[in-house]
Amino acid sequence: MSANMDTVKSRTITYEELKSGIVHLGLKQSDAEVKQLMEAADMDGTKTINYIEIITATMHRHKFKRDEHMFKAFQYFD
To answer: What are the coiled-coil residue ranges (predicted)?
Structure first.
């Protein structure tokens, strides 16, 4: 996903690339929501998102999904 958004091959994603990538994925996000995503992921304050920041931002999502699956399994067996 991030490689597709990095249109200038700078190995980072700018706000405009993020916004364009979100539209390309068919998602509807307001400018404020895209800005909020950018600010949340841009941990070093460079106004871009690098590879490490992408991994860090997505790890939480994967952990949440794993925890959600574990909770559903616990409920099933309980």
So the answer is: none
